[in-house]
Amino acid sequence: MLSFILSTVGPMILLAVSLALALAAGDETPASALLAEGRRLLEAGRLAEARSRLEQAAELDPGSATPHLLLGRLHDARGNLAAAAASYERALERAPDLAEAHDGLGFVLGRLGQTADAIYRFRRAVELRPDLFDAQYHLGATLWWTRDYAGARVALTEAVRLRPDQAEALYYLGVTLKQLHELEPAIEQLRRAAAANPRLAPAHMQLGLALQEGGDLDGAIASLRRAVELDPGLVDARNSLGLALSLKGASEEAIATLRELVASHPDYLPAQQNLGTALMQAGKLEAAIAVYRELTTRNPTSAEAFYNLGLALKQRDDFEGAETQLRRAMELDPSLPDPPYTLGVVLWQTGRRDEAAVAFREAIARQAEHADAHYMLGTVLLQKGDVEGALAAFRRTVTLNPDSAEAHLSLGQILQRRGETEAARSALAEAQRLRAKKAALQAATFAVDLGRRRLAQNDLAGAIESFREAVRLAPDYAPARLELARALERSGTRAEPQR
Amino acid sequence: MRRPARLLLLVLPSLVWTLAPGGTLETQRALGFGFTNVAAEAGLRALTTFGGRETNKYLLETTGCGVAFLDFDNDGWLDVFLVNGWTLEGFSGGEAPTNHLYRNLGNGHFEDETRASGLDGSGWGQGACVGDYDNDGREDLYVTYFGQNRLYRNLGGGRFEDVTARAGLGSQRTRWGAGCAFLDYDRDGRLDIFAANYIDLDLKTAPLPESGLCRYKGVMVACGPPGLPGGKNVLYRNLGDGRFEDVSERAGILNANGTYGLGVSTLDFNDDGWVDVYVANDSNPSALYLNRRDGTFEDVGVLAGCAFSQDGKPQAGMGIGIGDYDRSGTMDIFKTNFAGDTATLYSNSGDGFCDDRTFASGVGINTRWLGWGTGFVDLDNDGWLDLFLTNGHVYPEVERLETEAGYKQRKVVYLNLGNGRFEDVTERLGAPATTPKAGRGTAFGDYDNDGDVDIVVNNVHDTPDLFRLDTRRPHHWLLVKLVGRRSNRSAIGARLRCVAGGVVLVEEVRGGGSYISQNDLRVHFGLGDSPRVERLEVRWPNGQEEQWVDIEADRILTLEEGTGRPLGGGGR
Questions:
Q1: Residues of chain A with pLDDT > 70: what percent?
Q2: How many Cβ atoms from other residues are within 10 Å of residue A197's Cβ?
Q3: Do A286 and B218 touch (CB under 8 A)?
Q4: Which residue, of A114, B46, B212, B267, is most buried by count of CB atoms within 10 Å of its CB?
Q5: What is the residue-averaged pLDDT of chain B?
Q6: pTM exceeds 0.95 for this model
């Protein structure tokens, strides 16, 4: 009996005692004392007790918004979004300019799927309190999700300014910049996010993707590996890792990574696509074909799957099989230019020039700037005897792709046969220049490699000679200039004048 | 033990078909011909050593060796010269591999005459070509190397002498010789020498596979040729006193559009009586050196459309076949290329251009094989030139990949259908055509003098193949040996026009050919159902034209310059 009495009246006695003590200590009002207590309990995670204090505070001070604000957070923490929204609205009835309440309400509305309303609330919050980190961050992240990347950048930049070490804000700013094709700044923010929270797997993943896009495969692989270590369930990271390994030439590891992913997530089709690509790159043609066939069975409406299968069959010289799959890809997605382009090549290789021309024209209809399609159309037209048509197609090609040595060559050969000697000479010279430039770049990479080997053998003079040769061969090849500068610095020689 | 088999062959020809291991009897009968690999039983057992077996550090270890058919002892039977290679590790004394000379005994067997002949040279041997450069009636040999090319003068009595230095052919530095050809480019009656040079390779500075800069389907492989300095081709003019002069620069040879030369063949592309040269370049536009008739050449390959693929890309050209496959009277060009690409068939338009007929002819259906030695050859003597390709991958590392083709690869045989198109009949032929080998140099010649053209192949890290061709159908043939008197003795550069049964067949005596190899200098004609040749016209290398009429078919005919009926037109 005593224990029952104590269990029911005990807390009330304690409350009365604490209130008395608070009042004795000089607190303003009982309501504010309850509010303070409620906030403390909320922050300590003692939600039931916190709720009781806050509701009492609200009762004692009906005009105050703060208890309702805190109740909103409490309900949110308990997952009761409707109650949280109601509490925030009550807070706003009492204090319409309470930025925190707008932010809190926005946060709840966003998760209730009322995105536009959420954005409204966030915007209101930042208008009232531009220095409110949560509001800026929430606004930025929500705008990212709704693909308003320009707006997201503004809000997130401000959020990061307010809290430079907040990993999630840095992460969102990074992915926003990546969407805006500002790759280097994106990489910088994502690096900062990963440093601020080394266990934030998505940051490592997005950093890896950005590095891959920037050509730093080694960096990409390292970041993607970290993402996968932190969260093996991050299938996009595992998939991207497999693709990066394949691009790096680490075929066996790429294939193993992707096979594992396909086995654990058989419905995750991007992994199967990349597995097929990795197998193709490793020369495992039959295995790639098997993977692509599986994909077309499991995803019969995927134009990409049929296209990849067609490409693989073409590599096996199975032109009939390739044609079937490529035509299916064309039907499934009338917007994709590559299926008709590749079909055109298959038809051309099997001597069906008329049909090849039709296919190339279809590719051009789907993508007017498809330089390769224009070029191949020109090639076929020339072989059919349509010299004027070929000429027009080759001219279009060099307009779209001025670096196409083949197009300049073909143009020159036609002009030569027509007796337009000067124009022919110019076109052929350009073709030769482009080929020579490509060859020189390859030679420059070898020269840089030789220079590095000489450095490793402590032959500094020899290294400098090699790096100079690399720069001579390809003046715009950055690694050559960088290595030469470093080597000269080591030798104590002044750096060579920059171009 | 061997002779009874040979006798059996002669007495009971039908048994050949039950004994032949290739394809099925039915398919061989339907095709009208079949191959039997008789290398081992014939005694061709030399192992060709060339670089590393499983990995190659440098491209030097990948090119393999050529082979030459020649009749060094003038007994009317074709002998075989096989070039041999080396390894990076080298060999201790006595174990070094050497080139090999095999003498044809005339009974289907060969005897190894290497040591006695003086042709037991060693090193990174590449190609070989044949010609009587001193017009003494004996065929001489020029052998190319990574290092120093060598001229071997045939002394008679089965012996050769290395006269390189005395002939002024020594080089001050290491060069990578590839295909070569004897030719009389200035029509002075003396054979000159053309040699392609592949890469200016310095083993001290060349990048290594482990640099990661060079990959094939993800696997690190030997680097090049792109990125490495290209070799310059060379032309040596025969001064007539046993010496040669390097006239490369003066003759315009150095002004080619491309580099990385491999296969070489002579041909008269524009049918003006002056010998031209075609060079298959690797990863660069191939070269067609047109003889300007004034001691110079001009590379017209790019302008003439004979240099690139039909979509304007440089290809990895290796071997060359020259012949009139479409009976248009002009010399067409066939070139083997890399895996992932087609071989290339250029039809000579007759007005200075090449028309690429790769896809239109049907030879563009194969991209899996990596081609080396090749040639136009009338396999069934029906008067239409067929095609034979030797294949094998460049990189032994490709064995790690599950690619369909692998390092050792089958041959490809295209049957000429007579309508501008070819059909791949390899599978129908079966073994040995479908037997995978790492093949390289290939030479074509009738070693058993039975009227059909046989094929010898130099394989890497393996013994050679000798594909004896046996034809089933009763088609007629003619094998012609030309002997120059005012022209060079070997008659290289001569053009023959054979009229039989209303059909006109045109052929040449060529230097070089295939992949860094030399074919039989005798000219073969398949005559189909014609038992006689109404007329055989010969334009000798010096321009003199003669004809012979009413020739019985199915024989080997030797024609000497000056013994025919003049045709008008003259020499120098």
A1: 93
A2: 17
A3: no
A4: B267
A5: 93
A6: no
Q: Which pLDDT tens digit goes with each residue over B278-333?
A: 999 999 999 999 999 999 999 999 999 999 999 999 999 999 999 999 999 999 99
ipTM of the complex: 0.85
Mean pLDDT of the residues in chain A: 91
Out of A400-404, A491-495, B457-461, pick the least confident.
Answer: A491-495
Tokens 């020498």 correspond to what residue? B193
Decide if pLDDT at A165 tops 90. yes
Distances B246 to B167, B168, B195, B260 between C-alpha atoms, Å:
11, 9, 11, 19
Give per-residue pLDDT as tens, A339-362: 999 999 999 998 899 999 999 999
- Tokens representing residue A158 in the block: 């401000």
Q: How far apart are CA A174 and CA A203, in angstroms?
A: 9
Residues 6 or more apart whose Cβ sits within 8 Å of residue A404: A371, A375, A397, A398, A434
Report the residue of chain B nearest A385, measured CA to CA.
Answer: B355
Between chains, do B227 and A416 touch, taking CB under 8 Å as contact? no
Cross-chain residue pair A349–B402, CB shorter than 8 Å: no
| Beta carbon pairs, A and B, within 8 Å | 101
Whole-Å CA distances, B188 to B151, B512, B566? 20, 20, 20
Q: Could A428 and B302 be called an inter-chain contact, meaning their C-beta atoms sit closer than 8 Å?
A: yes
Helix (H, G, I), strand (E, B) or coil at B164: coil
Nearest chain B CA: its distance from A348 CA (Å)? 7
A491 touches chain B (CB under 8 A): no
Give the gyration radius of chain B's Cα atoms: 22
| A140: pLDDT strictly greater than 80 | yes
Task: Answer for the pair B553, B477: CB distance below 8 angstroms, yes or no.
Answer: yes
Shortest distance between the Cα of A381 and any Cα of chain B, in A, equals 12
Asked if B227 lies within 8 A of A443 by C-beta distance, the reply is yes
Residue that is written with structure tokens 């609200």 in the block: A58
Cβ distance of B213 and A319 shorter than 8 Å: no
- Are the Cβ atoms of B218 and A316 closer than 8 angstroms? no
The Cα angle at residue B57 between residues B53 and B59, in degrees rounded to 5: 90
Residues of B with CB under 8 A from a CB of A: 205-207, 211-213, 215, 217-220, 223, 226-229, 257, 302-303, 305, 308, 310-314, 340, 342, 353, 356, 359-360, 362, 364-368, 398, 401-404
Instruction: Say if the Cβ atoms of B368 and A416 lie within 8 Å.
Output: no
Tens digit of each residue's pLDDT (9 = 90 or more) over B69-87: 999 999 999 999 999 999 9
What six digits make up the tokens of B91? Answer: 């060999």
